[in-house]
Amino acid sequence: MAEIEIGLGKSARRAYRLDEIAVVPSRRTRDIADVDISWQIDAYRFDIPVLAAASDSVTSPVTAIQMGRLGGLAVLDLEGMWTRCEDPDAELAELAEAPLAAATARLREIYTRPVQPDLVSARLAEIAASGVRTAGRVRPQRAEELTPHAIAADIDLLFITGTIVSAEHVSGAGDPLNLKTFIRRMQTPVVVGGCVSYQAALHLMRTGAAGVLVGVGSGHAGTTRHVLGLDAPQATAIADARAARMRHLDETGVYCHVIADGTMRTAGDIAKAIVCGADAAMIGMPLASAVDSPCPGRHWDLSAGHATLPRGRIAEVAPLGTIQQILRGPALDAMGATNMMGALATSMAKCGYTDVKDFQRAALVATS
Q1: Residues of the chain above pLDDT 90, percent
Q2: To which H or E segment does residue 353 belong?
Q3: What is the tens place of the pLDDT at every residue in 335-357?
Q4: Residue 63 binned pLDDT confidence (cut-offs 50, 70, 90)
Q5: Which DSSP string do the residues of 292-308 spell out, in sequence order?
Q6: φ and ψ at 44, to 5 degrees?
Q7: Cα angle at 147 between 141 and 151, to 5 degrees?
Q8: Are strands 76-77 and 135-138 parallel, antiparallel or unpaired?
Q9: Which of 27, 112, 216, 321 has its CA 20 to 30 A from that of 313?
Q10: Which CATH superfamily is domain 18-366 in?
Q11: Strands 363-366, 21-24: pairing kind
Q12: 193 with 239: CB under 8 angstroms?
């Protein structure tokens, strides 16, 4: 890819955001009744290619059950409020009503409470008892400590995530988590991330992960770009991970799933992410906009509660409808923020594709 000269001593790649590209319809269209938007990772098949983000403003045991019944998967933050508080409803109500600055300070105070390992098992067991698939997220720093409690609850998918996760973390303070060793001794499929480059994605795939998350905390409530100066436009990041997946498949014969994570607000964004190479999309803000979300009207990402260097904030979100209406309809707006799965299926039908993997072959144009 051609590079742009920043100055005499530095150049940079031109990269693209999702709102800078568009999907090009082909010569064929399909009947929407023939379109299948399901996807599968490891042994688990889901009716819709959407995961609810591991944020306390998005995923609770109740909303995880709702997501499962709607055909998706929700990822519970195993280091969040649901494993720090016996009953976080009062805290969530407080965060929903307080002025934003006060709410953010209160959030950080709540996150100083210790994670209770017994609650890790209990929350996952509560979700599993409803008959839906369970998924939970831990940071690499606490994976060894908390994973046994998740395994005790028969978790279906484990997510090891952070703002940036690498397969080659170096530390002078002690032995860091060896992702390859950790994953290969697990019987539970593991998804790791985030990453935003070809090399980082390829190295994570080589750990034996079932999937990689592509994103760097640049969603609606993330401030990583402002605090750390780190970012990568999502369309290019997904396409780079797609190329890494192809190489990994050639090397090993193993298909590693790419999950787009961040900056997707509409069904059109999800469609473009899939065409760039994603197998599924993890969304936060659209689901936080549900009137039946854990903290209606407010959204924050995983790093907002960091005690010393937060890279997220509590953001206000306008109510859009119920989780059912946002994902499955009926649509309440004309901007693609409700009935997202109906819009995705229509996009695929208009372009002549019948399933998600096929849709990845669609053509793209750069619009800016």
Answers
A1: 82
A2: none
A3: 999 999 999 999 999 999 999 99
A4: very high
A5: TSSSTTEE--GGGG-SS
A6: -110, 125
A7: 170
A8: parallel
A9: 321
A10: Aldolase class I (3.20.20.70)
A11: antiparallel
A12: no
